[in-house]
Amino acid sequence: MLSELMDFLRIPSVSTDPARDDDCRRAALWMAEHLRSLGCAELELLGSDTHPVVHGEGPPVPGRPRVLIYGHYDVQPAGPLEAWLSPPFDPEVRGGNLHARGATDDKGQLFALVKAFEAASREGRPPVNVRFLIEGQEESGGEVLLALARERPELMRADVVLVADGPWYAPGWPSAEVAVRGICYAEIDVQTLAEDRHSGLYGGVAPNAHEALVRILAALKSPGGRIRVPGLYQRVVRPPRSERDSWKALPLDLEAFTRDEVGAATLAGDPRRTVQERLWALPTLDIHGIAGGYTGEGAMTVIAAQARAKVSLRLVPEQRAGEVLEQLTAAVRAAAPDHARVEVRPLFLADPVLVDVGHPASSHLNRAFQEVEGRGLSLTRSGGSLPILGELAAGSGAVLVAGLGLPDDNMHAPNEKFSVEQFLKGVRVFGRLLDYLADDTIINGGGA
Amino acid sequence: MLSELMDFLRIPSVSTDPARDDDCRRAALWMAEHLRSLGCAELELLGSDTHPVVHGEGPPVPGRPRVLIYGHYDVQPAGPLEAWLSPPFDPEVRGGNLHARGATDDKGQLFALVKAFEAASREGRPPVNVRFLIEGQEESGGEVLLALARERPELMRADVVLVADGPWYAPGWPSAEVAVRGICYAEIDVQTLAEDRHSGLYGGVAPNAHEALVRILAALKSPGGRIRVPGLYQRVVRPPRSERDSWKALPLDLEAFTRDEVGAATLAGDPRRTVQERLWALPTLDIHGIAGGYTGEGAMTVIAAQARAKVSLRLVPEQRAGEVLEQLTAAVRAAAPDHARVEVRPLFLADPVLVDVGHPASSHLNRAFQEVEGRGLSLTRSGGSLPILGELAAGSGAVLVAGLGLPDDNMHAPNEKFSVEQFLKGVRVFGRLLDYLADDTIINGGGA
Fold first, then answer.
1. Comparing C-alpha atoms, which of A314, A315, A307, A311 is closest to residue A329?
2. Which of A85, A257, A260, A262 has the most B C-beta neighbours within 10 Å, making it the best mutation to test the interface with B?
3. Where are the domains of chain B?
4. Which one of B177, B196, B201 makes the best mutation probe of the A interface by having the most chain A beta carbons within 10 Å?
5. pTM of this prediction exceeds 0.80
6. ipTM value of the model?
């Protein structure tokens, strides 16, 4: 299984990089071929030549429930190569961990679901009807799958949706997610000059694009961490007290979390809110990078005509990504100096989603984790975003968002890894789950 | 002459880029060989294997004054290649202008001085004793030449120093510079995390290095353009009223200057000070670029552990670059959030210089310009910096800082150019100047 996964990880399917379009297609083909080898039929590559959704159906099992397995074959850019201890697309097992870009997000976790399907099948017959929908744009907006959901909504319908794309709350603490944050990712472009100028010739009168951008960005958040985008907090619904109380029961060594897991001297955000609330139930604003001017070796004295920031806001129920984009645009324009032309361009919008966890499928997953790990599920939220989740939740009886990663997996960062033990646990947990779902007379429609 | 200059311009002698070390040495060798071909002797490459100072002496002319010709063979980085209409190191003449990196700064202007020396020589005998000191680090701190000035101060001694490294005040308005700004160029490094983090996992609690840096940078200047570095303005000496009044007589179409020359909607800086005062006699603070995080295609959601800004302050008499570095460092530390580790590293320090323009050599230069251009010299200041100028001024009777460029030469920017007509005028003006200096019985020590 590991050797197969390593083949999958070798494909640099970075969906945000147009230079990797062919690799994204290769990853889709690899996954389709693999599903075929496991007995799946009706295999299709849908919606895009370069970033198709892989659709496949396991062998039909009449009278049994339909389980939709969702995952994504695309990965984040590798980032600074010099920070990787082994090349990001040359997977390596070190100290019980598989290191590669995509190891945990999401190729490794997805592959645990695929292998659970394989392990639970007996003589080519799986316990339930399984549909695979595996996309190639989760890291870049998910437009292809979102369009597919509009065109073929029947594909989104299932009794239970399984998603494994995130970490446990902590080692030994499996968790299912009650809510997933949305995202509004945008580029802010600032132009102050027709062309770059030399600070020795025009320094003192030429408006500096970086200075304008820095002024705008600094205005978007208070030093205390409150986002200064008018209207942003209006729709933010605080989680019920019962849910917030349950978070207090989760283990959290604040000092170790701060120093070892986050890697910071002190945490950011409003200190009057718990760490979990800041991570899961409050919007954020982060700057991801600033381009323009000169950042190479030495002392170039350019006043850049243009500067660009990549920023994103994570959103919480009941915020709407499109509305937040408008609010951000207005705040940027309000903060811009008169001499600056600004533009805010959306790169990636996804609404936040609240999931119903009262479904019996949650109990089966809880039991499977209890048996394999010795501890049942904690109900948490995800600070990340999953563009298609809203459509999947609307089309299905239950959505189980339960990851297999660990918090130190370096998701989206150099040296991403996935614990081999977590992978094997995942195969066992999800294999059991498929069996339990098959036996559930309510879910499979057999009645009592 | 143009064909020779184009050979010189083809050498990409970018002194701030270690990858161009060999090219810098090649440019030095090219210039030394060219001076040898013009009859210079005592040719030496001094102080550095990669960025040597080229020293050469014209044929001795006993009883005549010694003129030191200073210039630099190094150039700025080319910057964004896609912005160039022709490749920066493949010189091209278009519309009467020679386009290349270094065309105006300083290879073209320097070459006009070299060719003036050639043109003024008759049967191998120049009118005055000429020494060439041509450095390869003017764009990167000038350390090699500064060290040479300490080791061999006699090399800096001359009756008159000629520098052509800057633009005229305006087309048709030749100018000599009374003062040159200094510079304090530094990198500001900010670290908030041990490693990059994912905003979906840690957004809301992980302190963002770019946010800290943006907050620091925004704090360093008021929206009105006043630099907020405590102590910075203490030593700033305002030019005398007579000098400021003379600037008011210079032509300035403020709207055309703003829109066409600077290329801005409105000018930056204190509107209560004239444009000339802002350009020449007030300190500046510019951000040149910000590195760290992700600036590639698409929506990577990284929270960068580190971010770096390149910034510089231009300094005016009587500021001192070393003191300003300390003031900047203190201001950066004061503005840094608690969770940020900051470091300020100097890349390039040069003190401002005031030049004595009462020397008779100034009158000769004025006459030469009057004859060639039909207008004598305006006395201006330079907003740029020339690290060695202080040493040259201390070792000589007079320093003439009189450029040949035009304000729209795109110095330090894409599509740098030098007018062929300006080049030819320069050869004529400086050729005459050498003759006039030879005939001046006071300067050449012959007495009356």
1. A311
2. A262
3. 2-180+352-439, 182-232+274-350
4. B201
5. yes
6. 0.87
